[in-house]
Specification:
Distance between the termini: 111 Å
Largest sheet: 6 strands, antiparallel
Oligomer: single chain
Number of strands: 6
Radius of gyration: 36 Å
Length: about 350
């Protein structure tokens, strides 16, 4: 006969836990359903955030430019040292061959000097440290040994220097990669914000940029403004020829520029070499702290960390490459925090 057992009743504790969990789930569902969607940023709020991100990207850009410049300098220095080492090794080999030829001649004429035998089997530094051997060497042999010793010391120093610069180059490349990623991250974040705007809002921002930019054919009336020098005037004219050219981080012309890329390129066209970064350009000439003393072609440094630079255009205007999404153009010098001018 089959046994019919009464189903086991859940414990009071278990029922309480299940009931509480169910109630919590219902409450959370209701809360989620009634939650207001995240507040959408206005066009002006997006623009403010994007402008800040672009400023941060430019800060990273100048660090990127500095690392790039340092990398190029180190590569040239390392190449020069390696060439010197190669030539020095050839000279050392010739000196050793010459001493070997002397030894051969001595052997043919009646035997090798004991000191030369000693040299041929060990390091010449060991002999020159022993005064007792010097009186056994001919003047010619002593001279040859000293040259070999000097050349070995020189090569050792050059190899040590090259090794240090190679380590520096490796860390510079790491910094370069870091700053490049920082720029790209800021630009991607800015683009994400811009993508959140409606088509109408995007068009409004584009129209603002179009009004801020000037056509590549247009020139600002400089009135009675005078140039700082003939070369400053030539540099400014070169920069004017690039009005309307797009801003691209890390670019130094001729088809795109970042801020310090434009100024360094412009002065190069005038036959003047200035540093690549805005921070270095800030120390490239005589500083001018009053805007009223600025002349056309003077560099103008902006922001406390000196991460932006342009060329003074006269009448309170600066000609510069502003930031990503813009072109080389004129703007009021008061649009950014002025620090000082630099007369090259």
């Amino acid at each position: 006969m089959a046994s019919h057992r009464r189903p086991k009743q859940p414990s009071r504790t278990r029922v309480t836990v299940l009931t509480t969990a169910a109630a919590a789930a219902v409450a959370l569902s209701a809360q989620a359903a009634n939650a207001a969607p995240s507040e959408k940023l206005s066009k002006d709020e997006v623009k403010a955030k994007v402008d800040k991100l672009y400023e941060q990207a430019e800060q990273a850009t100048e660090k990127y430019n500095a690392a790039t410049e340092k990398q190029e300098k180190l590569q040239k220095e390392i190449s020069t040292i390696q060439d010197d080492v190669a030539r020095g090794q050839q000279e050392l080999n010739k000196l050793r061959d010459g001493l070997g030829a002397m030894a051969s001649a001595q052997y043919r004429s009646g035997g090798i000097d004991p000191s030369v035998q000693l040299f041929l089997s060990a390091n010449p530094d060991d002999y020159l440290d022993k005064a007792s051997t010097l009186d056994q060497l001919s003047g010619q042999q002593v001279d040859a040994l000293k040259k070999i010793q000097d050349k070995q010391r020189e090569l050792s120093q050059e190899r040590t220097e090259a090794s240090g610069k190679l380590k520096d180059l490796d860390s510079t490349r790491t910094e370069l990669k870091k700053q490049k990623q920082a720029v790209q991250d800021k630009l991607a974040e800015a683009q994400k914000l811009l993508n959140s705007l409606t088509a109408q809002e995007k068009q409004a921002l584009a129209d603002e940029q179009a009004r801020a930019s000037r056509s590549s054919a247009e020139r600002v009336d400089l009135g009675n403004a005078t140039a700082a020098s003939g070369r400053a005037s030539a540099a400014f004219s070169a920069a004017q020829s690039k009005i309307g050219t797009p801003y691209v981080y890390g670019a130094s012309g001729p088809s795109s520029f970042d801020c310090s890329g434009l100024t360094s390129w412009a002065y190069a066209q005038a036959g003047v070499s200035i540093p690549r970064t805005s921070q270095a350009q800030a120390s490239a000439g005589t500083r001018i702290y009053s805007q009223s003393d600025l002349k056309v072609g003077d560099l103008v440094i902006f922001y406390g960390d000196q991460h932006h630079v342009g060329l003074y255009a006269g009448n309170g205007l600066v000609l510069h490459a502003p930031r990503t999404g813009t072109v080389v153009r004129y703007e009021s010098i008061n649009n950014m925090p002025f620090q000082f001018g630099v007369r090259i």
